[in-house]
Amino acid sequence: MGYKNLAECVADLEKHGHLIRIKEEVDPYLEMAAIHLRVYEKQGPALLFEKVKGSPFQAVSNLFGTIERSKFMFRDALPKVQELVELRSDPMKALKNPFKYAGTALTAFSALPLKQSLFKKTFQKTTISAIPQIVNWAMDGGPFITMPQVFTEDIDKPGVMNSNLGMYRIQLAGNDYVQDKEIGLHYQIHRGIGVHQTKANAHGQPLKVSIFVGGPPSHPLAAVMPLPEGLSELTFAGALGNRRFRYFRDDEDFVISADADFVITGTVYPHENKPEGPFGDHLGYYSLVHPFPLMKVHNVYHKKDALWSFTVVGRPPQEDTSFGALIHEISGSAIPQEIHGLKEVNAVDAAGVHPLLFAIGSERYTPYLKERKPQEILTISNHILGKNQLSLAKYLFIAAKEDDESLNTHHINHFLTHILERIDWKRDVHFHTNTTIDTLDYSGDGLNSGSKVVFAAAGEKKRELATVLSSDFKLDEKHALASDGILVVQLNKYENKEQGKAHIALLKEQLKANDLANIPLVVVCDDARFTAENINNLVWIAFTRSNPATDIDGVDDFTENKHWGCNGPLIIDARKKPHHAPELIKDVELERKVDKMGEQGGCLYGVI
Hints:
Layout: H1 6-15, E1 19-22, H2 31-41, E2 46-49, E3 58-61, H3 67-73, H4 78-89, H5 92-96, H6 102-110, E4 114-115, E5 123-125, E6 144-145, E7 148-153, E8 163-166, E9 170-171, E10 182-185, H7 192-202, E11 207-213, H8 218-224, H9 233-241, E12 246-249, E13 255-257, E14 262-276, E15 279-280, E16 286-287, E17 290-303, E18 307-310, H10 319-331, H11 334-338, E19 342-347, E20 356-361, H12 376-384, E21 395-400, H13 412-422, E22 429-436, E23 449-457, E24 479-483, E25 486-490, H14 497-512, E26 521-525, H15 528-532, H16 535-544, H17 548-551, E27 552-554, E28 557-560, E29 563-566, E30 570-573, H18 588-597
Parallel strand pairs: 1-2, 3-18, 4-12, 20-21, 21-23, 25-26, 26-30
Antiparallel strand pairs: 2-3, 5-17, 6-9, 7-8, 7-11, 9-10, 10-17, 11-14, 12-13, 14-17, 15-16, 19-20, 22-23, 24-25, 27-30, 28-29
Helix pairs in contact: 4-6, 6-9, 8-9
C-alpha cells in the first residue's frame, strides 16, 4: 500500500484486525516494553498506546511483529521491489529478459526523491523531553530511539542521492547528556554514516544529522536494508512504499523527511564523544557504556497528531526477527549473486545474528579427485567474512552444496548435523585472530575486538552422530546430549583464564576415558539443563558466550605449521566470563501486571 504517513498505516492495520489500542495510561519506563514483549511472544497485533505517561504524544509498536503483517503492509509493492533488487545485483537479467524487467527501471525512476517545500507548514516544534521517554530494560542508561532513520550526506558529494539512511540507536537522555540539548549517536563499524563522519572530520567540519521517526513503514525498512551498491535508501523507500520520498530543507539547511512524524536535527563535531549506554541489545545482553559520537540538538519537529514509533530489543526472537525475515524475502538472492559460488547464507537469529553464520557454497575445485575436501568453500568463506555486515560474524559454518542439494541454512538442527557428520577437526578449523567483531559482542578482549573461526565441511559422511548416550558413558559433571552428536557439560563457574583452562584440561582427561567417535562437539556451560533444553538455547549459549581463539579447545589437540586441530571432539567453553556483559532479565512485578492485562476485562484479554 502507498501509505502517505504512519497514521494511514495504523488506520489500515486497525481496519483489518492487525492492531489494537491500549487506552489506559502506560508508563514508558519498562511497562510499555513489557507489554510489547508479551504481545510479540504471542505473535499478537501491532499496538497503539493512546496515553503515554509524561508525554503528549501517542506511540505505536510491533508493526513488523509478524511476517504476515509485514507482507500485508507492502502487499502491492513487494514483487516489483524484489525485481528492482534482483536487477541491481545482476543487470544482465534485463538484457536476457527485457519484457519481464521492462517496468523495473520505470519503478526506480518514479521512486526518485521529491523535494517539496510546501510541507514546511505541517511541522511544529517540541523538545526532546516531550517525546515518549521509553526505557526497555532496567539497566538501560536512559530512554532510546529504537526505530530511527538517521540521515547524513557525503560532505564531498552533497545531495540526497549520495546520502545514507541508516538505523542506529539514539540515546535521548541520561548519563552526561545535557537535557534537550545533547543526545547520543551509537553506530557500529562498517556503517555508512561512519564514512560520512570520517570525511567531515578530515575537513574539520561538523556532520549534519537528521533523525526521522515514524512516517510510512517503507522508510524504517529502507533504513535497515542491506541494499546493493548504488541503490539509494531513499529511492528504495519510494519504490517499496509506492510513494516518492518527500523532503525539504529547513532554515538551517537540514534535510527534513516531509512524511516523518518526528524529525530531530543536530550536528556531530569531530572527535566529540560522551559515554553512551548501557542498552539491552539483540544478543540478549546489555551493551555497556562506551564513548560514542555526541549530537548537539538544533531542532525537534513533529507533525500534528504525530505517532512515536518504537520497538523493543532483546534476546531473539523479537520484532527485528520478523523485520529480518522480510528483508530476506526482498533481498535474499542479492548477496549470493555478489559472491561467486555462494548459494545461501543465513545470519542465525537464535544466536543473536552476528555471532553465527551458516553458509552453503559450491565445491568444484578438484572434481577429478575421488576424495573431496573443503577448497572452494574456503575461498567463499573469505569473501563472506569481508562482506559488509557479514564481516562482523564470529563463527562461520560452511558446507558444500554438492553433498546435499536439500540442505537449508535456516534449518539449524539439520545443518549442524550435516556439518558434524563430515567435518575433520584436524584439517577443517580455520581461525582469524586479533580481528574485529560486533560492537555489541563482549566475548572478545575489547570493544570490536576478538576472533573468528571457519568450520568448513565437504565430502562423504565420516561418522554417525550419537542420538543417545551409551550406558557406559562416564562423566563426573552434569551433562546431556543437546542435539545429535553435541554434548553439553556443566562445569564450575569461570573465575579467570588460568582456572578456566585447568577445568578444561580435567574435562579433556575425563572425555578420553569414553568412546567419543560419535560425539564430535562438546559445549561447556553454566547450566546443562537450560542449554540442552532446545536448539535455540544451545546456539545462543554456545556462540554468544565464547571467543573462538580463547574458548575453543579439543581432545588430543595439536598445532602443526601454524595450523591448530584436534583428533578428538572439539570443545567450546561457553561459560560466562568476568568480562562478559550481563544478560537481560525481565522485571517480575511488571510481568505480573501484564498478566492482569490479559485477564477478562483487561486491555490484552484474548491477545496474551
